[in-house]
Specification:
With 653 residues, this protein is an alpha+beta fold. The chain has 21 helices and 22 strands. Helix 3 runs antiparallel to helix 5. 41% of the residues are buried.
């Protein structure tokens, strides 16, 4: 027993109670994911979601998002405006209650919002808590009301400022993120516009305008009368469709269901599901209902119309989804999400609702459009034939269990411990770099898999061809979790998969090929945060007996400044300047130029290395980028490169 008065005491005074928005400021990542760029942009999404909920309730059709010159953001809608009258229980303005209390809002009253994305009522209050300052202006009853906050606390009560103009309606919120909380305050126009475009596709009655007043007034306006049909067309912009989009709309179990899909000549499935405008990246019951109905309906149609030859292999769900692009959007009054991330729907009734709607509507469509039905079945039959051809290769690639090393590739230098959470594998470009990595690694927990040349571009190949590629087979065997529909991230032999390629054009191409393969056939590794990109240094700076490493030009110049070297050649050649200063600057052209000690010190030592975690902010956007970069169409790729060339760093030509 601990003695009285010692450090082991644990009593009431040790219990801390965080009031109001203190908890948000104390643990912001619990509410917005993180405090990096991702969490920063999430602030805008939380405010916009309130406006979208107004639109779902039929009271808003215009949303303006402005990144202001000072770095603040303004979100304005033409909805009903947040109520400003006195709350009966809190005895203060409802506006102040909404802005300063967690779990306060109209989302819990189904007479106010039948469906909503902001289920927990924490959205705008969290934004307020994490802002250095926030100003809100509300137009209600012909009057304009105003209130200002500092780090979540009101600076004054709600004030009536003036009469509203006839055109003024709704809520206007301007906020500036707290620099004491966020690692970056730089809002990216493209990141914001991607989410606004997605919302406009999902809500065809809304017009969303985004403007960046910092750099020349870049702006975009999104309004899509065709809704999901236009969304599918956008996703398949660089693919060759087999037919026009099939559109399904219906209502079952008080759940509005909207789906658009089409088949293309490509080989991967691209299905994006949404619940109340939230992208359910892990799927759920609505996605299961769609897949079940699609397989059953197409199978019945094929047999009924004798489109399958006797003696041929049976078609499976995977066959019916090859080359399919689909967007599923459901509006659920009481959605039950699995986990806090809202990425997987759990409502069982939604599965049966989607099944019934898709089964009925798709069967009718196929009867009315037999030529389309025939094209789809022919596509699925070819997929089945390719699947059968790949079966043996797939069986060879799949490991029976994590302890079975019989199928591990011979060039894999495995680690000694077997606990995946403490193991990592470097997939390395080239035998030379692979050799250095094998010598420099910590053999206890680091495995090395060197690759020879470039892997197959999986964007242009069926699974049977993919599994014939030796480098891809080596990757599948080393990771040990299967591939595609058989993939199980829990069987992965490593907690981190780190891609290590040269910092040149070829290295970037190889990295893109690897990421395309992982995104298409092992996407769960990316969503689980297990994929990383190594950041080898670009420069070695030597002065006397000291070595310094720089990962880009900016860091190189900072090191030179610390060494009291100007960094500018003052009219002399760069080589002359380095010699005069007594500093030698080496530019690494490839990983193979580093010896094992240097590779360990700069790129592989967990204490000193820099690795970038690969994330998917928007699955739909990621899909389109991979298809643009790796697909058949040249023109969209050229346009993408021209538009984004200004963001490229460390490009060797």
């Amino acid at each position: 027993m601990a003695k009285k008065g010692t450090k082991s005491d644990y009593n009431a005074k040790n219990i801390n109670v965080l009031k109001g928005l203190e908890a948000v400021r104390k643990r912001p990542a619990m509410y917005i994911g993180d405090v990096s760029a991702r969490g920063l942009h999430h602030l805008i999404n939380e405010v916009v979601d309130n406006s979208i909920d107004e639109a779902l309730a039929g009271h808003c059709d215009k949303i303006n998002v402005t990144i202001n010159k000072d770095g603040s953001v303004t979100v304005q809608d033409n909805g009903r405006g947040i109520p400003v009258d006195i709350h009966p229980d809190e005895k203060r303005s409802a506006l102040e209650v909404v802005m300063t209390m967690l779990h306060a809002g109209g989302k819990f009253d189904k007479n106010t919002y039948k469906v909503s994305g902001g289920l927990h009522g924490v959205g705008v209050s969290v934004v307020n808590a994490l802002s250095d300052w926030l100003k809100v202006e509300v137009s209600r009853g012909g009057k304009i009301y105003f209130q200002e906050f500092k780090k979540g606390f009101p600076l004054s009560k709600v004030k009536e400022t003036r009469k509203a103009k006839k055109t003024e309606k709704g809520t206007k919120i301007t906020f500036y993120p707290d620099p004491d909380i966020f690692k970056t305050l730089d809002f990216k126009f493209d990141t914001v516009s991607e989410r606004m475009r997605e919302l406009a596709y999902l809500n065809k009655t809304i017009t969303i305008k985004i403007k960046d007043e910092r750099n020349g007034g870049e702006e975009e306006t999104f309004h899509f009368k065709g809704g999901l049909i236009e969304f599918v067309k956008y996703l398949d912009e660089t693919r060759q469709p087999l037919h026009k989009s099939i559109y399904i709309e219906g209502m079952k179990e008080n759940t509005p269901i909207e789906i658009a899909f089409q088949y293309t000549t490509h080989y991967t499935e691209n299905i994006f599901s949404y619940v109340n405008n939230i992208n359910t990246t892990e799927g759920g019951t609505h996605l299961s209902g769609f897949k079940t109905a699609l397989t059953r309906t197409l199978n019945n149609y094929a047999y009924r119309n004798k489109l399958l030859k006797e003696g041929k292999i049976n078609l499976t769900g995977d066959d019916f989804r090859e080359g399919l692009t689909a967007v599923i959007s459901v509006k659920v009054a009481e959605p039950q999400f699995e986990g806090q991330t809202k990425t997987k729907l759990g409502n069982s009734e939604t599965k049966s609702a989607v099944e019934m709607v898709v089964g009925e509507k798709l069967a009718d469509y196929l009867e009315e459009n037999p030529s389309v039905g025939k094209k789809i079945i022919e596509k699925c039959t070819r997929a089945a034939e390719a699947r059968e051809a790949a079966r043996k290769a797939r069986d060879l690639a799949r490991r029976k269990n994590a302890l079975d090393t019989l199928n591990l590739p011979g060039k894999l230098a495995d680690c000694s411990i077997t606990d995946p959470e403490h193991c990592e594998i470097y997939i390395v470009e080239g035998d030379s770099a692979g050799g250095s990595a094998k010598q420099g690694r910590d053999r206890k927990f680091q495995a090395i898999l060197p690759l020879k040349g470039k892997i197959l571009n999986v964007e242009k190949a069926r699974i049977n061809k993919i599994l014939e590629n030796n480098e891809i087979k080596a990757i599948i065997s080393a990771i040990g979790a299967g591939i595609g529909g058989d993939f199980n991230k829990d069987k992965a032999r490593y907690g981190k998969i780190i891609l290590m390629t040269d910092a040149d054009v070829d290295g970037s191409h190889i990295r893109t090929l690897l990421l395309t393969f992982l995104y298409r056939y092992m996407k769960d590794l990316i969503t689980a945060g297990k994929i990383y990109i190594a950041q080898p240094p670009l420069y070695k700076i030597k002065k006397g007996k000291e070595d310094f490493y720089a990962f880009d030009e900016k860091e190189r110049d900072e090191i030179l400044k610390r060494l009291k070297v100007n960094g500018k050649n003052n009219g002399k050649s760069e080589e002359e300047d380095k010699n005069i200063k007594g500093v030698n600057i080496s530019r690494y052209k490839g990983l193979g130029e580093m010896n094992p000690e240097q590779l360990w010190e700069t790129t592989m030592n967990p204490e000193t290395r820099t690795v970038l975690q690969v994330t998917i902010e928007s699955a739909a956007t990621a899909d389109k980028i991979f298809e643009t970069l790796m697909g058949d169409e040249v023109e969209p790729r050229r346009e993408f490169i021209e538009k984004n060339a200004k963001y490229v760093k460390n490009l060797d030509i």
